[in-house]
Amino acid sequence: MLTQQELKQQAADAALALIEPLVGPDVIIGVGTGSTADLFIDGLARFRGKLGGTVASSERSAARLAGHGLKVLDLNDVTTMPVYVDGADEIDARLQMIKGGGAAHTREKIVASVAERFICIADESKLVERLGRFPLPVEVIPMARESVARSLAALGGQPKLREGVTTDNGNLILDVSDLYIDDAPALEILVNNLPGVVTCGLFARVGAHVALLATQNGIQRLERP
Asked: Which of 18, 119, 154, 197 has the fewest beta carbons closer than 10 A?
């Protein structure tokens, strides 16, 4: 029986195998944030000197990439990337996701938007029939914390401030439990449009293109319908 850590490594290795044919001196790879993304970053070190560079979705990932001798670029200097590789807190069969457990979902969404393909790497426990078991992270401007919390409660959620956490953007995170997410793209738009919200952790309007899910029987590959 493989441990969760071994499953995460399996998913990271599958992504490395998938991107290897793309590696070249002019190629830039987008990289996410989290425990599974960390394993991908560690494996990406084998391509040191062979890649044009990387773009990180957080200060944490940028530091890890740089620590492996990989060039980290500012997204403002990048026009396009073939892939963005990141994990998920939840993903469904339509490759809609909830992200933000690491408080980096705003930057993750921005970096992913520049890539041609989003490759999600996760273990099988992250695959769900309906999104919402994992509390939805919502990044908010500090002065809007309570007004946004009231609006989220009016939607049926139970918002809770993530104590002691400030995002790389200088904002706060509200984690919203008990949301009934029947139409994830519509909810993503609704929450993102609340005054004071930077962005929520729903990646539904534009989800992953490919999911590499590590199971006890190997990698399960899902592609966007």
From this structure: 154
